[in-house]
Sequence to fold (291 residues):
Amino acid sequence: MSILQAILLGIVQGIAEFLPVSSSGHLAIIQNIFHIETDGGLFFDIMLHLGTLVAVIVVYRKDILRMLVETIHMCGDLIYNLKSFIQNQRQYSALRYRRIIKNNYRKFVVLVLVSTIPTGIIGYIGKGLVEKANATLIVPGVCLLLTAVLLVVAELCEDGHKIPKDISYTNGFLIGAAQGCATLPGLSRSGTTIAACLMSGYDKRFAVRYSFIMSIPAILGAAVLEIKDIGSETISAGIVINGLIGAVVAGCVGYVCIKTMLKVVRRKKFRGFAIYCFIIGMIAIVANFFV
Fold:
């Protein structure tokens, strides 16, 4: 793989990861049509995702910092409640327990954790299926058509007003399941989760924030699971350089695209992306019979 190819794939990853057009689908299509061989492919794939992960962290750094602080405080409250429970049982005391979920940020933390559970389960079970799907054009094509349908439905949904305090854990679990299904190439992760949030009545700005922040544990978890397989690949200095270049490009492009997506969702203008996904999906399906 050349440096130009690494830059191209980094641009595609940065654009398609955050705009609702599926990064995995585009990468699979480009690699199949142009026969791009990513030596050390697993390492390169991890680097691209880490690049977009950094973009999410930079954009939402204030929210993430607040969530980390609240997580520490929740752990402290849990320890306090445990000690109070033990003391109440042993000494027949009547110490009052602290409320754990007492603000929107704490509820947000728990919702992200709940959403991560089905994402991890589906991602782990379906790993083999996803690898096979990436080797063909028919699956990305069909999934891009499905993404187009989801975007049209999302645009037609009435504006919601739900923020963390209004959202049930069951709904958070279902959003996580939607994210898990979006590991299929062509089924946009951002498009699927944002559409699911809007259909569930989420506030538009919170829908985007939820979609991108809950991708952090999913990306980190996938990277940890894949790192153990990197040992089977031969990692040369050239592969490392290509990976770093791809990550930097994906991160920079991703940062711009997150900002763009915030404006798109605020105005609920998904139709252009839906048309684009439909066209690319049809091209991929047709190309499957000629490549």
